Amino acid sequence: MTTQTTKPIALAITGASGAPYALRLLECLVQADRQVYLMVSKAAQVVLPMETDLSFPSRPEEAEKLLGERFQARAGQIRVFGREQWTAPVASGSNPPEAMVVCPCSTGTLSAIASGASNNLIERAADVVLKEQRKLILMVRETPYSPIHLENMLKLSRLGVVIMPASPGFYNRPESVADLVDFMVARVLSHLGIDNPLNRPWGE
To answer: Which runs of E-coded beta strand occur in 25-170?
Structure first.
């Protein structure tokens, strides 16, 4: 694994379908010994138990305890922030994360980030990452895309945002849903500069 840096990775989970991607990414970040600042939207709290075996607690401290035990995280490695916790480090440009991933990213969140809405902590954190010129990765999950979705993605891509639709490949001959999830998580980790053994690179 790559050497741990002092800056955490911000991970936001929104209400688009794709919760297994988010939990697997969180697990891999913990295994890579990275600190994670986690934000979960209201819609994501509904989707998580529909798509996974996890019912996400409403209280951040309860969520930290649950996730810490689930992924065997060290103390303080996973920090969970409320949707309007404006005192969170990610809300200020004076303490931005190294990078931020929105996984999965709903088209509503995509639109809010593209317009600079900052109506909740996820949107504000993304705005901070943009203005501080840190890496922002959006794993957009929707099909088909409307012209509005495409225009928002193009606008953000021109600003340096990595638009990474949840589109797993099949050249590795996946044998399970977990293999498909790992394909996308490996792509995110690669863009974060974190070595991982989840997928064999093309041509190898």
So the answer is: 36-40, 78-81, 99-105, 135-140, 162-163
